[in-house]
Design brief:
Layout lengths: L6 E7 L2 E9 L24 E2 L6 E2 L6 E6 L2 E5 L1 H7 L6 E9 L8 E9 L4 H14 L1 E9 L2 E12 L1 E9 L20 H13 L13 H14 L19 H10 L11 H8 L1
Parallel strand pairs: 1-7
Antiparallel strand pairs: 1-2, 2-8, 3-4, 5-6, 7-9, 8-11, 9-10, 10-11
Helix pairs in contact: 3-5
Length: 278
């Protein structure tokens, strides 16, 4: 089934404008969610809010949002006041600079969207994708949507065809600094480093292939749900005890090198995936 776009916008840099369609790159619907039920009769529970001072239930029409500026002291905002503070949504992502792709730490990555060319945008879209890929750079810009303003990174991807991904980025204040952690400085012996590098080389692949990894917890939960539907009981077991702490680092590295790596399952080919869906 063809992907369905969720919005249209224009990517602009200099005097060049590229009409594009926005597509979700991830599927949140794949997550399994549970509802809260009354244990006695199995009926679904409804959420209710209570006033902490008067100890009475409060209807949604009587609720307002407030900001706690001191202990138990709030300033209240009406829906109209909050609406006025929101960023006006735009149908454009304005590129402000181009930076080397490797200089953007993935810790800043947030939600990702695929960009596809809209009517009249195929040629400039292909040009931007090719130029970014060959220059090793990505585009940084701003995009306003849902009342918020986002930093976005537009980067090239290649999956049979050349395309673009628009990645929402976190602001600097939303990412904690690694230097805030208490990480002791340790000396690494040359022999230890050599064994670690050999281990890395032994388990290295040419590229990351997400198709070879399965969400085993998701599959286990799905199977348990099906058993419950069929009336079966779910067997429980004691959690496995954590392994003891490794004391001799050199021995652990040598043992790891001697251990034969497990053969990874070959990812399903596109044709096989398509046939499986039928």
């Amino acid at each position: 089934m063809a992907a369905r776009s969720i919005a249209s916008l224009t990517v602009s840099f200099g005097l060049v404008s590229i009409p594009v369609k926005l597509f979700s790159a991830t599927e949140a619907s794949k997550a399994i969610s549970f509802n809260l039920l009354h244990k006695a009769c199995g009926s679904r529970l409804k959420q209710q809010y209570f006033c902490a001072r008067e100890e009475i239930p409060v209807a949604r029409d009587d609720m307002v949002k407030g900001y706690e500026f001191a202990k138990d002291q709030y300033v209240m905002f009406t829906p109209e006041e909050l609406k006025a503070l929101e960023e006006t949504g735009t149908h454009s992502a304005e590129i402000t600079e181009f930076v080397p792709l490797e200089t953007v730490d993935p810790v800043y990555f947030d939600k990702a969207y695929y960009l596809g060319p809209d009517k009249g945008g195929a040629k400039p879209y292909a040009l931007l994708a090719r130029a970014l890929r060959e220059s090793g750079r990505c585009a940084i810009g701003r995009w306003a949507a849902r009342g918020k303003q986002y930093i976005v990174m537009i980067r090239p991807v290649e999956d049979l065809v050349e395309g673009l991904v628009m990645q929402q980025l976190l602001y600097a204040g939303e990412v904690r600094a690694l230097r805030d952690l208490d990480i002791p400085k340790m000396d690494v012996k040359p022999a230890e480093l050599k064994l670690a590098q050999q281990l890395i080389e032994q388990q290295s692949s040419e590229r990351f292939d997400p198709g070879q990894y399965r969400d085993e917890v998701h599959e286990r939960v799905e199977a348990a749900i099906q058993k419950k539907i069929e009336g079966a009981e779910i067997a429980t077991s004691e959690p496995a005890q954590p392994a003891g702490q490794v004391i001799d680092l050199m021995e652990a590295l040598r043992a790891s090198l001697e251990k034969k790596p497990q053969k990874r399952a070959e990812p399903a080919r596109p044709a096989a995936r398509k046939a499986a869906k039928k």
